[in-house]
Amino acid sequence: MTADRPPIASVARRILAALAIAAAPVLLSAPAATASADAQSVATDCQPDDTTACVAVMVLDAENERIPDVDLTVAGAGGFSETVTTTADAPVSIAVPEVGRYTVTIDPATLPADTPLPEGAPTEVEVTAQTGGTARAAFRVGAGAAAPSTPTATATQDAGGGTAGDPAAPDAEGVGAAPEGDASKRALTWGQVWQQFGSGIRFGLLLALASIGLNLIFGTTGLSNFAHGEQFALGAALGFIFINQMGMPIVAGALVTIALCALTGLAQDAGIWRPLRRRGTPIMQLMIVTIGLSIALQYLIQLLIGGGSERILQTNPRPLTLLGVTLSTASWLSMVVALVCIIGIAWFLTRTRIGQATRAVSDNPALAAATGIDPDKIVRIVWIMATSFAALAGLMWGISYGAFNWQLGVQLLLLMFAAVTLGGLGTAFGALVGSILIGLVVELSNLVIQSDLRYASALVILILVLLFRPQGILGRRERIG
């Protein structure tokens, strides 16, 4: 029996070899099915959690139908690179080794002949992978897939089922966003209205925290500071650097951010505004200086964080429903912090000697100086407060809405001016009232008009206020002549 074993083993090997040779043509004749099966297994492998970040890719035609068998490469942090093939059933999702930015590149040679990549369309798109969520990259191909002004490659962030839009737009955390499509054709429900009302309160509180400083500067100096939006964006940028890149705890990073931005206010007043005031520089020239400062700060922020969208927190936000409104937990905490700060500012202005002196300088600087108040000292304090609260508002905005970019200040500056004009220029409490109203209008208008136009509704209100009540809701009429 022992002598018979080698021949039996030899025969078994020959049989297996013959079966492999016979099956080779069958296996080689169905590469598409094999690739599709492999891609489908990849598509279901990545399940985001607190330690896993995923990147999903898809290719769509003009009718939003998925195109299978297209190769895409995901490359990024740590030299990671992996090529995946799309399927017709679902987006292909893969796990990436660490959080960060990844580049998704499409191979045009693998597209079907009847659905080529549109002329001039990008072949790659960047996404930001975060633990607990799936960053999605989509390419649109084929005739009519995209107009020249419409991007053919888009990137969104899925945080537990929601999809993020513009990083500077509300609900970038994917919670409470309005459905896609033509807003005028959707049947509204009270639940949607209430949800947008809650989002409007959040928008208004954060806008108010930033706008109060803008109004205090105008009240004490008469200057409309066009660089105030960049102080807002600087708070978000420094928060990203200290909390995300340097790994500082949120509270410590926030305190360092606020302190540095407060120093920028002190430096601005000492190095720019106080010398110009002593020279008697007219307000119009001072406004031009603020525009130049705004441009300089914009590019400084771009130099610090780059030209893309960034996230202050590495993890995706967790939704929390209170009173029927679903927002991220960070959004609710930011609203509480903003409300506490606004109440603190109100107490400071009405109950402290410095606050009362600030109101006196705002009402009549010459008379305040005659009573022993130092206007320069009060203005210096106002600049420090304004830049500090703008930084805090920008930091909480970046945390609440999930992402931001270097143009955040420019995008929100006109809304700040609309808020302070509506509430009453030079009145701290007017900034609060105007900001809440602007926030509600912006978010509620999203139910009936396209999301891209919602900021325009706030600017329409600004025009109407200037036409019919230029002093604002809480402002006082001024006699001219």
Describe the protein's architecture and organization:
The protein is of the alpha+beta class. It folds into two domains: 123 residues, Sandwich (Immunoglobulin-like), CATH 2.60.40; 279 residues, Orthogonal Bundle (ABC transporter involved in vitamin B12 uptake, BtuC). Helix content is 53%, strand content 12%. It contains 13 helices and ten strands. The strands form three sheets. Strands 4-1-7-8 form a four-stranded mixed β-sheet. The protein has a four-stranded antiparallel β-sheet with strand order 3-2-5-6. Helix 11 crosses helix 12. The chain is elongated. The protein starts with a helix and ends in a 13-residue tail after the last helix. The N terminus is likely disordered.
Summarize the structure.
It comes from Isoptericola variabilis (strain 225). By secondary structure, the chain is of the alpha+beta class.
SSE pattern, N- to C-terminal:
HHEEEEEEEEHHHHEEHHHHHHH
Find the CATH topology of the largest domain.
ABC transporter involved in vitamin B12 uptake, BtuC
Ends: how far apart? Answer: 123 Å
Number of domains: 2
Question: Which structural class do you get from the secondary structure elements?
Answer: alpha+beta
What global shape is seen?
elongated
| Largest sheet descriptor | 4 strands, mixed
In CATH's first tier, which class of the largest domain applies?
Answer: Mainly Alpha
CATH architecture descriptor of the largest domain: Orthogonal Bundle
Low-confidence stretches: 1-6, 15-44, 147-154, 159-186
The whole-number mean of residue pLDDT values reads 77
What gyration radius follows from the Cα positions, in whole Å?
29 Å
Question: Percentage of helical residues?
Answer: 40-55%
Strand order of the largest sheet: 4-1-7-8
Indicate the proportion of strand residues. Answer: 5-15%
Number of helices: 13
GO cellular component, one term: plasma membrane
InterPro entries: ABC_transp_permease, BCAA_transport_permease
Biased composition (Low complexity): 143-158, 165-180
Signal peptide: 1-35
